[in-house]
Design goal:
Layout: H1 7-15, H2 19-35, E1 39-41, E2 44-46, E3 53-57, E4 64-69, H3 73-90, H4 95-111, H5 113-124, H6 128-149, E5 156-158, E6 164-171, E7 174-178, H7 184-197, E8 201-205, H8 212-224, E9 231-233, H9 238-246, E10 252-256, H10 259-271, E11 275-279, E12 285-288, H11 294-303, E13 318-322, H12 326-337, H13 358-373, E14 377-380, E15 384-385, E16 397-398, E17 401-404, H14 411-414, E18 421-427, H15 430-438, E19 442-443, E20 445-449, H16 453-462, E21 467-470, E22 485-486, E23 489-490, E24 503-510
Bound molecules: nicotinamide-adenine-dinucleotide.
């Protein structure tokens, strides 16, 4: 994910600069984040008690920032207990009152955007303007759910003889949230805002790779008037996530991450018959017909592959280009990608920051090597770049990679790479390309570039995916639902529909006459 705003706003933000402040704010942010406790329970930062720990490494520099203890059963029980206790009162607030808190939080996020963005870069290595963009999008999302909260309501049905029925939309209880590392603040915001709007409370576990900004969101909610215990954070690796999902007092789990972890979480939740929402991986197709506006198609392909260092779940990494324009498309694509600036993510003009970790970089490079063995050709990039600043020597910077001579059966074309690797495939007919586009276990997103309206609608109708873009890619305006078909997930986030996944319906029958009983 995820760009919420229209592209004009995107360009404005891209050039918004506070260069002179960046360095000092960055240092401040680093020192604060290196020492303060990172669990958040009952409205306060607290240290976890677990005996094992993990390292927090800044992707931009490769430097170890600190060790963080894994939250153990005791830590999780305390957080869940706090959430359960506060649920009793929070769920009785009116939707309008809950909405006011969310709207205040959105404003506080906007006021704190630089601090949040610096910290997000520390965690992720993404370019600062992208981080700022993500954070402002989250403020919009939280405000959006603040607006919806007051309108959450049930139905009324008049029945015969003076009887009637009504429904009440009630919260589920305590929600366990688990996030991935590519959009850390967004995971916390997209899950907590609809959950809180419905009257639930939450215990959120960010990815161990990016633990910092989910806690800052807790402090913002607190300042906005959210009662302590409504939103709690526990830090830890997979084992901590497992304990959270298995806790008997968790009513629902909302998860973003890979398919194998999602499958394990679903299994765990099945034992307790818990509600579950899964936002999982993808291998999405982007189809470019010969009548498309070529410049826009090239821009779309870049948005579909290379933002956030290619670490975007909805990326359209299988780029199908109609054979007759493939050569022109490739030439324009290479020219534009060659303008991308790789380096210090804190610089406003950087467009490719650091890959999240050395392990992830090795996975990406493994896919590229394997693609070459299977017959693909690297026509651009794929190699490591060493920035001139020695401070960045420990970070991993990968040049975006374009592969040609690809076939549908290659590993790189079938598996989610989660890095900046575009596979270019060609096609001859609409029927052929739609069948090939759908030939995948995933169904998160897809795109089509064409000027032919009827064809656009035909292709959209035939594509098996949860989000489809026509003549653009990876745009996520606030309010538009997001989620996957097939193995890409269950449920939807971002949009009114999300409220259905954080609430349940109570139906009430009221008898207006005497009881009719045949016995
Ligand atoms: N569909 C979406 O909205 C979306 C968005 C972003 C990322 N993703 C997907 O996320 C993946 C990359 O993220 P990742 O590497 O962090 O994924 P991951 O599955 O390795 O980890 C995700 C989270 O699950 C936790 N976890 C690991 N094992 C667990 C267990 N047994 N029980 C409970 N929690 C456990 C991790 O600690 C982490 O917080 C990609 O597949 C990407 O497509 C999907």
């Amino acid at each position: 994910m995820m760009y919420h705003l229209r592209s004009t706003a995107f360009n404005t933000l891209r050039h918004y600069s506070k260069d002179t402040k960046i360095f000092s704010d960055k240092i401040l942010s680093e020192s604060h984040q290196a020492t303060s406790p990172l669990n958040f329970v009952l409205g306060k930062r607290v240290d976890a008690q677990g005996s094992s720990s993990f390292q927090l490494i800044a992707p931009a520099t490769g430097k170890v920032l600190r060790n963080i203890p894994n939250s153990n059963e005791q830590d999780i029980s305390e957080a869940v207990l706090a959430a359960r206790h506060t649920f009793k009162s929070w769920s009785k607030w009116t939707g309008f009152e809950r909405g006011k808190v969310l709207k205040t939080a959105a404003e506080l996020i906007r006021n704190k955007v630089d601090d949040l963005a610096y910290t997000e870069v520390l965690d992720t290595g993404k370019p600062i303007w992208e981080a700022r963009y993500d954070i402002l999008g989250c403020a919009d999302t939280i405000e959006y759910y603040g607006g919806l909260a007051g309108g959450i309501k049930g139905d009324f049905m008049q029945l015969s003889g003076g009887s009637f029925a009504y429904t009440v939309r009630e919260p589920l209880g305590v929600v366990g949230g688990i996030g991935a590392w590519n959009f850390p603040f967004q995971m916390a915001a997209w899950k907590s805002a609809p959950a809180l709007a419905c009257g639930n409370t939450m215990v959120f576990k960010p990815s161990q790779v990016t633990p910092l900004t989910a806690v800052m969101l807790g402090e913002i909610y607190q300042r906005a008037g959210l009662p302590g215990g409504c939103y709690n954070v526990v830090q830890g690796e997979g084992e901590t996530g497992q304990i959270l999902c298995s806790h008997s007092d968790i009513d629902k789990v909302t998860f973003t991450g890979s398919v194998p972890t999602g499958s394990r979480i679903m299994e765990t939740c099945a034992k307790g018959i818990k509600h579950v929402t899964l936002e999982l991986g993808g291998k999405s197709p982007l189809i470019i017909f010969s009548d498309a506006d070529l410049d826009n198609a090239v821009k779309g392909a870049i948005l579909a592959n290379f933002s956030n260092q290619g670490q975007v779940c909805s990326n359209g990494t299988r780029v199908f280009v109609e054979e007759s324009i493939a050569e022109d498309f490739l030439a324009k694509l290479i020219e534009r990608v060659d303008n991308m600036k790789i380096g210090d993510p804190y610089h406003e003009d950087t467009t490719v920051g650091a890959t999240i970790s050395s392990q992830q970089a090795q996975i990406v490079e493994g896919y590229i090597d394997n693609a070459k063995k299977e017959g693909a050709t690297v026509v651009y990039g794929g190699e490591r770049v060493t920035p001139s600043d020695p401070n960045l020597a420990g970070g991993i910077y990968l040049r975006p990679c374009i592969l040609v001579n690809c076939t549908d059966d290659m590993t790189v074309v079938r598996k989610e790479v989660f890095g900046p690797v575009l596979s270019l495939l060609t096609f001859k007919s609409e029927e052929e390309v739609v069948a090939r586009a759908n030939d995948t276990e995933f169904g998160l997103a897809g795109g089509v570039f064409t000027r032919d309206l009827q064809r656009a609608h035909r292709v959209v109708a035939a594509m098996e995916a949860g989000s489809i873009y026509v003549n653009n890619y990876n745009v996520y305006p606030v309010g538009v639902p997001f989620g996957g078909y097939k193995k890409s997930g269950i449920g939807r986030e971002n949009g009114e529909d999300s409220l259905n996944y954080y609430s349940q319906i109570k139906s009430v029958y009221f008898e207006g006459g005497d009881v009719e009983c045949p016995y």
